[in-house]
Write a structure and sequence with these properties.
75% helix; 3 helices; mainly alpha
């Protein structure tokens, strides 16, 4: 089944999704996997936290 992905594949897709919009099939596969996996949603949350921290740091470093 093309929608069934393992954790390694989903991790790669989560990271790729930070740089570009994923095709609908990949987005659907990630969503389905997130419902059955305990670790991948935590990884996705950590990636979001790092992105937000990086943006905050970037804004902080631009202030005089």
């Amino acid at each position: 089944m093309f929608l069934k992905r393992n954790c390694k594949q989903v991790t790669r897709l989560v990271l790729e999704g930070e740089d570009r919009r994923l095709p609908w099939a990949d987005r659907l596969a990630v969503r389905l996997h997130m419902h059955i996996c305990a670790a991948c949603p935590r990884f996705q949350q950590q990636v979001r936290l790092m992105r937000e921290a990086t943006l905050a740091w970037r804004h902080y470093s631009e202030e005089p």
